[in-house]
């Protein structure tokens, strides 16, 4: 399909569109999480406090030395989480906008780069922060009331899928053939 605004070198569908939608989905989700933590500060503040205090775990003496019971340290950790979420959301929203521009004009390198940064921020937050540090170091898995491992796994999975999709060869536009010429078909 060729018109004065769209050529075969600027695909509007396929992997670039999927990359845009996935990046936008994660951007919206992380934006809402950050917004919720800012506007309903106390709910997840209590979550972070209980996880770090380890007060609803099995209270194994061999592990309890890890507990952080200082409200100041707990609140600092929570504020750091909110700040990280906010920056990740901003980066992902920028990545989504760059995908949208690329879908209209072609060129997805900046969109891929910015989206990768934002998605890696989400992977670090939920993979390192919640699964590894919260889940294992602070034994969050032992808590019936303050266990965020399922949600963290879900968030890590969606961000990971988005990362894989945006790094598939066709997500950056029409792949080139061996001679530098575009391949036939729709670029996938």
Automatic annotation (TrEMBL):
Identify the Pfam families for this entry: DUF2165
Residue spans crossing the bilayer: 14-35, 77-102, 114-135
Top-level taxon of origin: Bacteria
Keyword Transmembrane helix found: yes
Query: Sorted alphabetically, which keywords does the UniProt record give?
Result: Membrane, Transmembrane, Transmembrane helix
Asked whether the keyword Transmembrane helix is assigned, the reply is yes
By what name is this protein known? DUF2165 domain-containing protein
Q: Which organism is it from?
A: Streptomyces caniferus
